[in-house]
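Annual report, structural modelling task.

Input specification for the coenzyme A complex:
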Amino acid sequence: MLHEQIIMRAMEAKDILRVAEICTFARRMGFWGILSDNHLFVDSSVPHYVGYFERTIKHEAWQIFVHEENGIVVGFMTVSSCDEEKGCLQIIQFYVEPALQGGGIGSRMMRFCKQKATLDGYNKICLWVLEKNAAAIGFYETKGFNADGARRTRKYGDLEAVQMKYTIAV
Ligand SMILES: CC(C)(COP(=O)(O)OP(=O)(O)OC[C@H]1O[C@@H](n2cnc3c(N)ncnc32)[C@H](O)[C@@H]1OP(=O)(O)O)[C@@H](O)C(=O)NCCC(=O)NCCS
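The model returned the following structure:
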């Protein structure tokens, strides 16, 4: 894809189908072998995420940003003030179109996220990542994030998985 016109902007209702596609397929590609097949291929479908983002876009505390290249949405992220720590911006979702991963889109999204955190007066960014998601952990570490030692268990359909907390000062 030619990087002619690249923007990050707030998600709009017209983006819901595209964001739902990215969420569905990036999760399947990224989490296959970590979460159950039933969760990834049955419970988590494009229609499921269309409904999810129709609700989420109205969530006042959450902000969803899309990365658009030449008019096509190729990634998105959801951020919110961290409930547990004042001054900390939490990344809740961070996904790049699977066909275009490894091409620098995630890096541009992260640069935007750090700029936004600074402009909005935060001094830290945090996120939770599946402990078995080595690719995403590698990505976050190249961006300067470190594990702070916190761990939690989350239920994904019929299976529980451990997440680790990563943070960076901004
Ligand atoms: C993780 C993800 C967001 C990264 O986005 P991307 O567009 O593929 O990343 P980029 O092409 O910008 O790569 C950025 C850097 O991460 C590094 N990186 C990417 N994958 C890596 C891996 N498996 N191991 C180590 N480093 C990795 C790259 O080497 C690159 O380093 P550089 O900036 O020094 O050149 C994307 O691959 C994705 O959506 N994955 C699936 C969903 C997911 O796991 N999301 C996170 C949920 S917490």
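The CA atoms of residues 88 and 124 lie 5 Å apart.
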